[in-house]
Amino acid sequence: MRPANSVYLWLRAVVLLLLATTATSLELPTEQAARQYGSQALPLYHTWRSTLTALIQADEAGKLKAVNQFINRRIRFADDIEIWRQSDYWASPLEMFAKGGGDCEDFAIAKYVSLRSVGIDASKLRLTYVKARIGAAGSSVSQAHMVLAYYPAPNAEPLILDNLITSILPASQREDLTPVFSFNAEVMWAGANSSSASRLTRWHQLMERMRKDGFVF
Asked: pTM, whole model, 2 decimals?
């Protein structure tokens, strides 16, 4: 179902703006930019860049596996309140490296940026909000969560890159996740509403901060 006209048009305008500014390849910031976040950011930044450089010639399956493992293993999960003293803050990779931790949005965003930088087209990647079931099958308890979905072809079943589990699985095997809406620079999404509009504003703000850091889209 299409959302109310005002929200739909607002969201469409945001997507078109993102499409105009993020559809090309992605270059990573320099060491000087990383240094601005403090010496604690540099070791992880250097390891990240070296890992991505080594992946340029890998096939897409290899890129997905390596990036998913790198972010899941190197970053400590922590809530925004603990790290940023804010209820909802979307961190850039450099900000996350400086803190050494992040929440589900930060994990998914870092994976998106990493895969874009090693040549995976934006059309294959969607940042996806889901409801994640807590407990066994049949549980009615869930929490808001973000994952990165990879589509090998436009109509293919996506693979899910998640910080909750280490394996990359097809969406049909993640029965604990219920999609709410998804977005990137090129793809519209389902379930758009005022809440998703607010989150897309955070995405746009993050893109502006990343440009100042030296990310080139």
From this structure: 0.86
